[in-house]
């Protein structure tokens, strides 16, 4: 007899993705890029990671730049249900250390403080690569952000590292497939 009569059950999974972007009216600063996915029936398991990189590449909610795709992929692999991407500098044109001094506007830091009040955050990841070791302005900005965190938040703060234990950025080929996180004190030791 043939098995063709026995049909496999079809499993349906509904995932709703929500993206939220906070930017200035001129679209030159992006303060927050938040993306979360809700799996129907598992809403209680929501946990978010804050990922801090150097600067945003654009201010659009439909961003498909490689950094964001790699962040999302790795955040999912680590079991989070979303991430809040923020930056040392909110200015999209802060591409080099000489522009870092103009990298934030008067709202940048205030908005970061608001972001960290989100209750579902359980990990904060500095993923800035070696820029905090090579640029004094970037280092001071990272320290300013870190110093704003509560004692509980400092305990949940990590840095993205490569296999050699060096600070890494999501675009680094050494961490694209899998993220390793280390103690945040590494961020302030490499000076």
Primary descriptors:
191 residues, 7 strands, single chain, globular, 24% strand, 7 helices, seven-stranded mixed β-sheet, alpha/beta
Q: How many β-strand stretches?
A: 7
Mean pLDDT: 90
| Strand ordering within the main sheet | 1-2-4-3-5-6-7
Oligomerization state of this entry?
single chain
- The Rg value, from CA coordinates, equals 19 Å
Low-pLDDT stretches are none
Largest sheet at a glance?
7 strands, mixed
Give the overall form: globular
Structure write-up:
The chain is α/β, with parallel strands linked by helices. It has 7 helices and 7 strands; from the N terminus they run E-E-E-H-E-H-H-E-H-H-H-E-E-H. It has helices spanning 66-77, 97-100, 108-115, 131-134, 136-148, 151-155, 186-189, and strands spanning 15-23, 30-39, 48-53, 82-87, 121-126, 157-161, 180-183. The model has no long low-confidence stretch (mean pLDDT 90).
At a glance:
The chain is α/β, with parallel strands linked by helices and 191 residues long. The chain has helices at 66-77, 97-100, 108-115, 131-134, 136-148, 151-155, 186-189; strands at residues 15-23, 30-39, 48-53, 82-87, 121-126, 157-161, 180-183.
Lay out the secondary structure.
Blueprint lengths: L14 E9 L6 E10 L8 E6 L12 H12 L4 E6 L9 H4 L7 H8 L5 E6 L4 H4 L1 H13 L2 H5 L1 E5 L18 E4 L2 H4 L2
Parallel strand pairs: 3-4, 3-5, 5-6
Antiparallel strand pairs: 1-2, 2-4, 6-7
């Amino acid at each position: 007899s043939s098995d063709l009569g026995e049909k496999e059950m079809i499993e349906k999974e509904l995932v709703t993705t929500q993206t939220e972007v906070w930017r200035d009216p001129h679209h030159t600063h992006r303060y927050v890029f938040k993306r979360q996915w809700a799996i129907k029936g598992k809403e209680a398991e929501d946990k978010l990671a804050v990922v801090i990189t150097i600067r945003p590449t654009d201010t659009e909610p439909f961003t498909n730049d490689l950094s964001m795709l790699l962040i999302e992929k790795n955040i999912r692999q680590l079991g989070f249900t979303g991430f809040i991407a923020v930056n040392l500098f909110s200015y999209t044109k802060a591409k080099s250390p000489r522009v870092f001094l103009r990298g934030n506007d008067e709202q940048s830091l205030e908005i970061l403080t608001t972001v960290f009040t989100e209750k579902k955050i359980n990990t904060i990841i500095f993923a800035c690569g070696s820029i905090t070791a090579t640029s004094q302005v970037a280092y001071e900005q990272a320290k300013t952000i870190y110093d704003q965190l509560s004692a509980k938040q400092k305990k949940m703060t990590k840095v993205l590292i490569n296999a050699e234990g060096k600070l890494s950025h999501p675009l680094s080929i050494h961490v694209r497939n899998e993220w390793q996180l280390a103690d945040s004190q590494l961020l302030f030791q490499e000076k």
